[in-house]
Amino acid sequence: MSRLWRASPLTYLALVIAAGMSVFPIWWMFVVASRSSDAMGQLPPPMTPGGNLGANIARLFDNTDAYFLTGLINSTIVACTVTVSVVFFASLAGFAFAKLRFRGRNALLLAIIATMMVPTQLGVIPLYMLMTRLQWNDRLPAVIVPALVTGFGVFMMRQYAGQAVSDELIEAARMDGCGTARIWWHVVVPALRPAAAVLGLLTFMTTWNDFLWPYAVLNDPANPTVQLSLRALSDGYYQDMSQVFTGTAIATLPLLLVFVLFGRQIIGGIMEGAVKA
Amino acid sequence: MTVQLDARPPAAPTPGSRRRSSGRLTRLDTRYSPYLYIAPFFLLFAVFGVYPLAYTFWVSLHDWDLLGTDHPFVGAANYTQLLADADFWHAVVNTLGIFVISTVPQLLAALWLANLLNRGLRARTGWRMAVLVPNVTSTAAVAIVFGVLFGREFGMINWMLDLVGVDPVAWKSDRVASWVAISAMVDWRWTGYNALILLAAMQAIPRDLYESAAIDGANRVRQFWAITVPLLKPTIIFCVIISTIGGLQLFTEPRLFHSGTNPIRGGSLRESQTVTMYMFENAFAPHYNFGYGSAVAWLLFALIAIVAAVNVLVLRRMGGGSGPGPGKGAAR
C-alpha cells in the first residue's frame, strides 16, 4: 500500500466518537444486565456494571415463559449443524464450479446467483405449509434443513477456489491417478481453508441471529431458538427489564466472542467480498 | 505458487484390462462427478427454494384460509383486494419512509467513516472492529435494547433531549418518530459494514490521482467529491442495492421495537408496521389467510424490484461520466 494521508488529532476524535456510539448500546446492555430492575428508572442512567448479574441469570433460567436454556441449546444445535453443512457442501460445489468443466456450468452458476436475489419473505408461507406436511412444524429440522447449503456460500467458495487453487496442481494430481474426490480432499480443501473459516463464521453468526423464519415455523413456546426466547421475554407483561437485558446479553455473547476471536478474518472477508464478489 | 510439472510422458502404458476399466472409471468420474458436487445445492434449492416460490404464486390465486376445508380458486381477487387495502398501503408508506430515513444518512455516514479509516492510523484493525461490532450483535437483542433507549418515560434518548431543552418525543406512538427510532437501529447496525466495503474500494484508488489534483490546487474536500466519490460509484451502487433489499424487508427491528398487545401490528395504530409484518399478520396469527399473505409477499417482491431499479437509474444519472471504477472495485 502506498503512503496514506496522515491522520490528524481531529480524525482520532471523530473515530473515538464513532466507536463510542457503536459500542455504547452493547456496553449499556451489559450494565443493565448486571443491575437490579430499578436501574432502568434511574436518571441519569448508571454507566457501570453492578453486582446483580448472578441473581438476574438465575431468574432468567427460572422463568417458565421464556424457555431460555432450551433456546440456547437449540440455537447451538442449529447454528453448528448449519455451519458445518454449508461449509462442506459449498466447498464441494465451489470447487466444481471453479475448476471442473461440465455441460451447463455457466447457466447453473447463474441460477445460483439468481437465487441470492430472492427475498426470503417470498417463500415463507409455502415453506410453512411444506413443513406442516412434513410434520416438521415446531421442530428443529424445520430451521436446519432449508439452510443446509446457501447460494452465497457456493458463490463465495467458487470465487476463492478460482484463485487459490492452481490448475497445474489439479492436473498434476490427476496425472498421479487421483480421482476428483481425492483431488478435492487433498488439494482443494487445504487451499480453501481460509475462505472456509470466513464462510463458517459468517454462517454461524447469521444462523444464530436469524429471527424471521424461526418466528414463523417454531410456534411452540416450549421449543424456541434463543432469539425467540428473547421475544417471549420482551413481550411479557411483567417487564422485568434487568432479566430481559440479561437475556439479550447472553444471546449476544457468542456473537461477540466469535468476533473478538476472529474479527480480523471477518473484516478481511467483508472487504474482500466487496471487491471480488 | 510454483508447481513442479513433470514434462516427461508418463511411464509406458501397461496393456491389460484392469488399466482399461480404470480409464473408463476416470472418464465417468471427470464427466459426472461435478454434477454430484453441485447436486446438494440444487436438490435443496428445488425443494425449499423454487417450489415455495412457484407455490406462493399459486396460493396467492386462491382463497386459502387455514381453517377452511377447500381452497377455491379466485384468480386475481387477492391482488385487487390488496391494492384497495388501506392497511397495506399504510405499511408500504411506513416501509418506504423507514427505508429513506435510514439509508440516506447511513450511506453518507459510511462514506465519511470510510474516508476517516482510509488514513494512516494507529491500531487500524481496532478501529475497524469498533465500527463493525454493531453488525455482529443479535438483531433481536438490539431491537429490545433500542426499544428501551427510546422509551417515553425513562428512555435515555428523551432524557438527553430534555438536557438540551427538547420536549420528550413519543417514539412509539408517533408515526414519524417511530420511523426515526427504527432507522436509528438500522443505521447503528449497518453503517460500519458499509464503511468497510467502501473502504476496500477506496484503497484501490491510485494515489497519484490525488497528487496531481493537489498540484492543480484542489483541496481535500474538493478531492473527495471530485475523485473519491465518482470512482466509488460502482461500490456505492452495490451498497445502495444491498440496503434497498435489506431495508424493504425489515421485520425483526420493528417487530421487537413494540411489545404488549398485538405487536405484529407495529403499534396500536400501525405506526411502524412494515410490509413484511403485514404479511405475517395476514398469513399467520391472527388471520391465517395464506392466499392473502402470499399476495402481499409477491407485491413486496415487486416493490423491492421497482425501488432497486429506480435507485440504479438515479445513481447512473448522478455524477455524470465517471468512467469505469478503479480496477478491483469495478469487478463486480
Structural write-up:
- The complex is a heterodimer of chains A (277) and B (332).
- Chain A is mostly helical and 277 residues long.
- Helices cover 73% and strands 0% of the residues of chain A.
- Chain A is built from 12 helices and no strands.
- In chain A, α1 packs antiparallel against α12 and α8 crosses α9.
- Chain B is built from 13 helices and no strands.
- With 332 residues, chain B is mostly helical.
- The chains are: A mainly alpha (277), B mainly alpha (332).
- At the A-B interface, α1, α3, α4, α5 and α8 of A face α1, α3, α4, α5 and α7 of B.
Give a short overview:
Chain A is mainly alpha-helical.
Cα(first) to Cα(last) distance of chain B is 26 Å
Mean pLDDT of chain A: 87
Q: H/E series of chain A, N to C?
A: HHHHHHHHHHHH
Structural class of chain A: mainly alpha
Distance from N terminus to C terminus of chain A (CA atoms, Å) equals 21 Å
Q: Outline the low-pLDDT stretches of chain A.
A: none
Give the topology, please.
The complex is a heterodimer of chains A (277) and B (332).
Chain A: H1 9-33, H2 53-62, H3 68-99, H4 105-115, H5 121-134, H6 141-144, H7 151-164, H8 167-175, H9 180-209, H10 212-217, H11 226-235, H12 241-276
Helix pairs in contact in A: 1-12, 2-12, 3-7, 3-9, 3-11, 4-7, 7-9, 8-9, 9-12, 11-12
Chain B: H1 17-60, H2 77-83, H3 86-117, H4 124-132, H5 139-149, H6 156-163, H7 175-202, H8 207-215, H9 220-231, H10 233-248, H11 252-257, H12 275-283, H13 290-317
Which descriptors apply to this entry?
heterodimer, A: 277 residues, 12 helices, B: 332 residues, disordered N terminus, disordered C terminus
